[in-house]
Design goal:
The chain is an alpha+beta fold. The chain has a single domain, classed as Beta Barrel (OB fold (Dihydrolipoamide Acetyltransferase, E2P)). It contains 4 helices and 9 strands, in the order βββαβββββααβα. The longest helix has 9 residues. The radius of gyration is 13 Å and the shape is globular.
Amino acid sequence: MQTPDDLHYSSDHEWARSSGDTVRVGITDYAQDALGDVVFVDLPKVGSAVSVGGSIGEVESTKSVSEIYAPVAGTVSAVNDRLSSAPELVNGDPYGEGWICEIATTGSGDFDALLDAAGYRALTNS
């Protein structure tokens, strides 16, 4: 499983990449592998307020449906509309083209409270 060192991770298997006050969010390689072939992604609405741990959407696979949880609080500022017609991007490139949304944060320190890559590897190996 890939666990890029430049990302932060939630214990719910979301990854987060910070760029200033914006955090790009997706599901981890571990999560997409556990789900199997992704067939549908329910994206959050741009402009919606989200809180840490709050549901922001769902990923449906041939095996199950799984919630996507916000790793940081803020406002959804962008979504990956490509997933509407190509949900398989979540499987093929979870850390790139398969991103879910971007959240404009309030600078509350939520991002820094997430797991680093070593912490996430420890979580998934236990």
